[in-house]
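Researcher: For the record, we're logging two predictions in this thread. I'll number them. Prediction 1 follows.
Model: Prediction 1, sequence and structure:
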Amino acid sequence: MSKLVKFFIAADDVVAALALRGGPARALESVSWGNFDPEEAVIEWESLFTGRRVEELMDADEPRIVAGQDNDGYVVFAFSDRLVSVLGAAGLVKIGEVAVLWSQVREQDGEALDVDVAGEILGDLARLARAAERQGSGVYCWVA
């Protein structure tokens, strides 16, 4: 599990990559969550929101690494445009449905994820996605 996870908005990959060692600057809108594998979660979210298979997303190299490497402790990766779009369009009912499904997926893998917490995480990310779309920016994740 990651120690520090911040989801943030950046204008592009170059700006997002600057967050690699120190995290997103205060000037970048962000939300922090932890106690789950964010790369795995992003794939699960896209699968649950869009119906695409997890294997298909992994074969497409989702999520796309922008800076760092998975095994060196620091990484910045991008949400797909499709995930940003479905998160941005998701209302409370859809977020609640996906939160239940995500909690069930985590339980099947032997991890406890409270449905209310899952809903809070997805709700925060939906607000971040809407803000990113208004700004013409992307959503990224910094992991340390």
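Researcher: Logged. Prediction 2.
Model: Prediction 2, sequence and structure:
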Amino acid sequence: MADGRDAAMIAAVAADPRYRALVARRARLGWWLSALIFVIYTGYLLLIAFDKALLGAPIGDGVTSVGIPVGIGVILIGILLTGLYVAHANRHYDKAMADILADHRA
């Protein structure tokens, strides 16, 4: 458990307007990225439900259908969005949080 000094610092950080703004920005980005991947994934599922012929069409003369690279693309977009979020968080949110904590430790 945190001692009284830690609890006081946690309360001070939680009340800091910069921290509240940081949390709001981080949450907003998270919701936007979640909505984007939801739309992409739902679109893929709707495509499966309503246009099986398109996704089942072979690519060229091979046996691989159009659905395979589209499905892999959905997965890769999810990985890419995760990487973008992590890179953005490391670049912006972590520094801002470190600055806030440094101010409250001083």
